[in-house]
Design brief:
The complex is a heterodimer of chains A (about 525) and B (about 625). Chain A is mainly α. Chain A has one domain (about 1-495). Chain A is built from 19 helices and four strands. The two termini of chain A are about 35 Å apart. The relative contact order of chain A is 0.10. Among the domains of chain B are: about 280-530, no CATH class; about 575-629, no CATH class. Chain B has 27 helices and two strands. Chain B has a two-stranded antiparallel ribbon with strand order 1-2. In chain B, helix 1 packs antiparallel against helix 4 (about 110-130) and helix 14 runs antiparallel to helix 19. The radius of gyration of chain B is 31 Å and the shape is globular. Chain B starts with a helix and ends with a helix. The chains are: A mainly alpha (about 525), B mainly alpha (about 625).
Amino acid sequence: MVLLYIILIPMFGALLSWLASARNIALCRWIALVSLLCGLLLVTVLWVSNAADPTPAGHWMYNWQQPWIPHFGISLHLAMDGLSLVMLALTFFLGALSVLISWREIKFKIGFFHFNLLFVIAGIAGVFLTMDLFLFYFFWEVMLIPMYFLIGIWGHERREYAAYKFFIFTQAGGLLMLLAILGLYFIHGANTGVYTFDYFYLLNTPMERAVAQWLMLGFLVAFVVKLPAIPFHTWLPDAHTEAPTAGSVVLAGLLLKTGAYGILRFVLPLFPAASHDFAPWAMLLGVAGILYGGQLAYSQPDLKRLIAYTSVSHMGFVLLGAFAFNELAYKGVVMQMIAHGISTGALFMIAGALYERMHTRELSRMGGLWPAMPAMGTVTMIFVMASLGLPGLGNFVAEFMILLGSWQANHIMTILATIGLVIATVYSLRIMQKVFFGQSERQYALPDLGLREWLIMAPLVVVILWLGVYPQTVLGTITNYELRITTFSAPHVPQAESSGRVVPVSDSSFVINHAP
Amino acid sequence: MLFLIPALPFFSALVLILAGRSLNKAAVSVIACGSMGIAAAITLVLGLPFLQSGEHIIVQHLWTWMQAGSFTAGIDLRLDALSLAFVFVITFVGFLIHVYSTGYMAEDADYSRFFACMNLFVGAMLLLVLADNLLLLYFGWEGVGLCSYLLIGFWYKDPANGYAARKAFIVTRVGDTAMAIALFMLFQYTGTLQIQQILDQAPQLWAAGNSTIVLIAFLLLGGAVGKSAQLPLQTWLPDAMAGPTPVSALIHAATMVTAGVYLIARTHVLFELAPAAQTGVAVIGAVTLLLAGCSALVQTDIKRVLAYSTISQIGYMFLALGVGAWSAAIFHFVTHAFFKALLFMGAGAVIVAMHHEQDMFKMGGLRKQLPAVFWVFLIGSASLSAIPFITSGFYSKDQIVWLAWSSVHGHTFYWIAAITGAFLTAMYTFRMVFLTFYGPKASHHTPHAPGNSMMIPLYILALCSTLAGFVELPHTMGHVTLFSDWLQHILPAVQLQQESTALEWTSQLLAAGLTFLGIYIAWVWVIERPDGMLRFSQMPFMRWLRKLWFSGWAFDALYDEMLVHPFVRTARMNRRDMIDRIYTTLARITEWLHNMLARTQSGLLRWYIMGVVLGAVVILSVLIWRVYV
């Protein structure tokens, strides 16, 4: 049940804050904030209690199932392992901060804004928890529509264009995924007689190789669009740039991660052999994203657009690591999801704070801001360094582990990706130079970080440093994920009677059984 | 206790970042210098047992940093004789530089930011040399890169400083990339990044000359040349003097540029297994020391002369590493740290006295006005140009010159390069001394003498630059080998191909003679007949050569053309993302089709009838065609 609460809390928060907005705007903001903090607290409690009593690797920490449409084998099936746990923690953490960052920025339709924001969060939480593919598709869409409103209503100048583009891209990918889900459903049903959308039943569906490849591509396209990898990335710079700050933070920090999560949770375990065949191409896409995104980031004149393209570059590492098929790279990928969520989220918040002060995103109109805002400069420096992968900050741990792992899989791709670190240096340092260093051309009245902004920035800085020097907090939590990786890392898994059968042991936990 | 050595500077940096703006300058100085002083004191305490024997080792495990599958890297520190030599220089010279900075930066508005960065710099460097595994070493390695960026661009208002700072970070990062790949390979083959385990396993894993180990060693060398500003990644260092002078002293003497020397010495086992890479180290050292020496000869900016001289002196260290004279390289590192810190801070004293004038041609005659600075600067210069017997630079450099030829890996070419370098060094050093302190007064400024906080570190360093040499004397003069014996447990002794006292004497005398010749030529050039030299340097070929040397052999222009411009040009061209074009074109075609079709819905009946008739005709024709043909 506790898993259901994780999804329901932001949903109720969404409704309540919308209702409250009719009477009291401040109350509406507070309800939104408190409900997300409750969610964060709940997840933290779950994390701490599981860290204190480590279950044997392979266990699911929580599992909850209720029939929904039994006729079609659809159920409300939620389950949580370490991967879901850390992603949920990130979701509520960034979610609460995005309410705070919108405190002054959003000035109209405040109730509806918070309704949408919290509904996106609820959708994301659902995505990270569902173990039923039909329900998964449902939450996938739940994320999409409120996000469309967030961009389209509260965005900047070209918000409608950006919102449409975002919607069409993700929707096209989503529909392909729906086709693949249905295909998988019928194939599994035809072969075993059990028609079900349940993830654990579908895990070892026997099928022909060519069919598996097509289905795998169907899933992959949806996730790769979301991630995004080139050549499907072009919705991202527009959406990130035009969205309000909270929208950009949720997009970069969380929505992109659902793509990465989907690859780890669905593409690789459902279609191990097909993924393995496709791995070189996926890695190539990843590396191309790292280099191409990096170069585009360097050339952008718009601060938010620059940060948006750095996401393309950083998410390339996710694709590279996910298809390296070893544990080091996998853990690196999860670290990258967390660290990139924090660091890029923070950079978007800084861009938002600058926009609030200067009403521009143009780099050419900034410069020389350090004397006026040394504290913001210092914080920006930390996240810029995180973005270029400086050791001591979370992103380094992630990128190094990914590269170390992918080296075992493919030398040339790894070398190219490592060169991407030099490009990351080039574009990251450009941010500092253009915004904070040099001479200030015009005299803005610029206050440094205020109390509310400190409340936002301080936790982000602490977390990114913590991830950099003690990443074991996350790496230790996701240990149970590796078990399944090792079972499908062999290039040609014999499908029918192979590894990784899921046997329900009790109503609250699942064990992954390595049958010989 | 060991962890306190890097932790103290880090902690002090943290305090200064968080609370720096609310502290007054005195408090900032106490925190910054105090942490450095305590770290230096702890180093001395921990170093005492090492005096009895170089075998002593202290290892400290702090916590597990990353662990995944079989991969583990800890925050583990390890102090042995080699790291102790580095830690001692870093904390001790670093402390003196900090004290000096309290005077040098006294007027600066960003006082606490400066010291926060300086502390961070020292902390990162300490982490680098104390790291027990290569990943932690890489942590310090990159941290040093960050701090160099922060400090070179310290005066951020001038975009040129920002450019120099970015250049330093990016160029060294190119080397770091090579090093990162070396780490990937080492992990692939040895399954660990722990340095001692790698060094123990390497001889079993690879035969000497095995292509894998050669590749690994070359990649490590790539990292080393980046940080140590050796060919072909030396271009960042001359620009790095954009930062405040104490920063240059820190970069050139105690931190940063010596990191490459440390890395190669630390992984010497790998280089011994890879003769090709070791030869590469020696050749790079020999060539770099000559190229940089030539460039130093024609500079006008006093700090630029010193910058090129650092590149050249690190070249000597690389040469020593390349011929297997490991301890000679470390010995030269120690003496170089003393006299180069002395020279930079001496130059800083001159620059402050001259109201931030750095052009040597606008100085002159300062000997009378700044006698104390003159004397310490002269001691440093004497050490740099290796004046026999009385300077530490003589003993350390002389050892390298001799071993460049007599070691089993030695070669006549190396020896010629080293001895030519000695000649160049003497010439450019004393050209600098004469231009700055001798001759007519060139400026109308009245220089003001620096205060005690700046002068006392200089006196101490002057003393060290003289005395440090006596711990290691050549065969021909007393044969003291305290330093190399002490390091012997970590770094094997150099193997000689022949020992000949007569040849050693010849080499030493020749080197000494060339040094004095260099000083004499500098004297003639600057003091005796400046007009003649001017005419000589105005000859067409000389002008071309001068320009080439002045620009550091035009490496900057080359890299700009080859790498920077193409990258920037394609980035600008593709600013709007050509892939997006595909989608927008698709959208435009759809829209166009929509417009075309929309036009058919004109509401005019005759057009609709026309359409129906035309459609019928087409369908009928097709039917007839299919039936009858």
